[in-house]
Task: structure prediction
Amino acid sequence: MVGNIRLVGAKKILNVAINKEIRKIMTCYDVVQTKVEKMGTSIINFVKVIASIEEKAKREFLWCFLLILILVSCPGCLNCFSPPDLSECTRIEISYHPSALSYFVPSTTLQNSILSSNEKDYLESTKTFIVTDRRLIEEFAHSVSLGKYAGFALASLSLLNPVYIDCYCNSKHTISFGVFSDIIITKDRRKFKYPTDLRVMIEPPEMQTFKLRFYCAWHMQRLYTAGPLSRKSVSSYPEPDRWCDIILRERTNTSYVSEDEMIRIFKCPSAGEGKCHYAMNPNCKPDSSLYTVLLFETKSGWNQHGGPELFTFDNHDPNGGCVLLNDGTVKFIRTKEELQQLRWK
Result:
């Protein structure tokens, strides 16, 4: 009983201390982090960092460092932090950095091969979207409220392709934070964890066509890198009437990719239902021209093979379809004229 009372009292004292010192903690941390990044993270260099801080600030630094250690090592033992409150939000500004291009088509190679110059310019110039739909805002606010506190973000997560959120109540700015996949990081670096990727909830509808086209092309590239279609590693491609079966069997037996995940790769994400939306050109061999069509989009099926007569423009909006050439390049074909110009033999 006495132990429980002491524990509750200790938690209350710690919570009060954290709330009072939080700004000092982050200011102190920023100074030390910069020095640690420059000098390295070994024990000897860390001691040099401590020694470089004037005596006047040493005690405060050690206190700040202790609190940060507690917060990072035991995020679940403190419940004093809540996720961002968006209950009064009436408008959301979604910002992509450096632009929507790198977010929705995160491959320089595919940016140049599946986007027209106008589409690329449009995505590159688009950085911010506005959401005012009340239902969408409420759903997003509810999902954000379910986050679990996960300590402080002590390192940059910029490689996770973040989305930056600014919330407004009418014209008044209320809160800002970054969404890094299934993690939210607030301006004061508090980190909250979620079961799903929150970025998907607020992706602008007009960007879906580019996102789905990218994943279709990416699926083709993953099929190409599978062993049986790896041009530099094989003397012949799979038998056309069994190519899906062979890739599925060999890929799931020789890699960490599960069968369910591999089955998804056979599908164009924008084509709807179906087992496989790609067909093989039986005239393409490993020693064929690098510009020969190897795989191309078609209607749903399995082990499909043939020529341009099977190609479909209907899997995407606006109309078009992806083809994969013998060198691994993916192109997006928009017209029958472009289709006829491709090398099929």
